[in-house]
Amino acid sequence: MAAAELECLLGNANGKLKIGATVQPYHRDLLSRLETDDPTSPRRPANPTTLERAKVRPRVELDIQLAGDTFVQGQCISGHLVVHVRSHRRADTQVLLANNTLRVIGFEYLTDSPTFHVFYHLSQRFDDISYAGEQIFSESPDYSDEEGYREAKEGLHVLPFEMGLPMDSRFGKPKGVIDVPGGVAMRYIIMASIDIKDPDTNRLSLAHFYRQCSIWPGLSLRELLAPSTRPLVSTAVFSVPQGGSYSKLRLAARVPRPSYFTGQSCYVHVQIANNTQRTVRSLCMTLVRTTTIYRPRSTNHGGKTDEYIANKYTVKTVIEDISESRLVMAERTTRRAASSRGWWTGVNPDEKTAFTHRILVPPDAISVARSKLLAVDHAIRVTIYASAGMLGPTTHLSVTLPIRIVSMLSVDPPTSVAGPGDMIGATYNRDGGLNGSSGEPRLHRSELENRTDPPPTYRTRPPSLEQPQNTIVSSRYAYPEHRFIHCAKHIFPFYDNVKLKSTRIVGAIAILQ
């Protein structure tokens, strides 16, 4: 049920909706019920809620302008929400708005079927993350109806916002971005939505808009780089027949910690005990990625879906080698060197040795813990090859060390753009003119130095909105109108005879001062 509704909100591959698309009436609870995926076809409600974007002429249109596309837990998502309230026709009445909400959603889905699973969902009211939330209403909250709807203000509204991504896991755990072949996709979107009511018919509709982004988990560098108290060790023994008895070839590999970064060299400590008559001539380290896709079954069993039986998923596993590092005995070095033999001399019969070798982690390798549909695991496979001669039979022995690969963005995130002072909310009328500003005017440098209180953030309502004054705002100053006219008449005696623009006169006053 929730899968079909989310699929309707997202639209097709180009983000377009079907004409006349609808969702369930109580869509405010829709995204909180997305964990209950049901592969069966949903039953349409009697009075569905229409989507404004699915209409030929939507009454309210939304747009989101972000300061970036990559965010990490602990940072703030900042940008602007653009709300366009179209002018109503003469026969129609002005629409009512309520519940302006901004959501961050991370979900995974099957590309060939409407099966979704949300693993991260953060929802906040727009009034809590922006001081300009009241700008889209033409009435005060005292004039709202019993459901909280108020009359919308026509025009184009630009509303700044600043939304923090908490570090705890109350809203789920983001996993980053990974390209998964095999029919599974993992995406993150930032979605804005506003409830709309028609005052004549009391019909509800939903205006929404979303943009894609990437959310990464915030991790501690100290915890990731700290060595484990009990390092991960893997051992293997192989018995080789020799003269009616058996001799043993032992291999042990160890990694100091369980987590590594993308693009980093992973060093593995190797120990080889060769009690055979063969020589260990080469070693190969391979980084193995195991991608597991869990596809829900759609067959019914006795009136119950496979959710009630033990085997409710068909599992598809893809194992591939994504990186490799070889170490060969007496490998040739560069020309004109003092020795033609490499640093590793192999392991001779009845010999025991220990050394360290490394393998490079690709920059696109990310481990993903399973939530429902997808799991990506990594492991380092260490294999040694022993033979009695160059043309003799070869014996190989291998061990596997599971590791976790995380992105460097989790510990070194991009600079968070949050709350710049020159980004303020604004409202434009139908002709494109600026109706007003919801931010404070810029002040002179001397005024900023003498000012004690810090400038307001996106979440704080500035005092200029509480006590508006009749001021003329230039690029640097804010002068009351009566003072401006008084100064202009003293500086320019011909003020009454010559028509000058106010901005030029204010600029001249600033130069003379």
From TrEMBL:
Residues 33-53, 423-468 are annotated as: Disordered. It comes from the Eukaryota. Residues 441-452 have a biased composition (Basic and acidic residues). Residues 245-410 form the Arrestin C-terminal-like domain. InterPro entries: Arrestin-like_C (IPR014752), Arrestin_C-like (IPR011022), Arrestin_domain-protein (IPR050357), Ig_E-set (IPR014756). GO terms for biological process: protein transport. It holds the Pfam family Arrestin_C. PANTHER family: ARRESTIN DOMAIN CONTAINING PROTEIN, ARRESTIN DOMAIN-CONTAINING PROTEIN 1. This is Arrestin C-terminal-like domain-containing protein. It comes from Lactarius akahatsu.
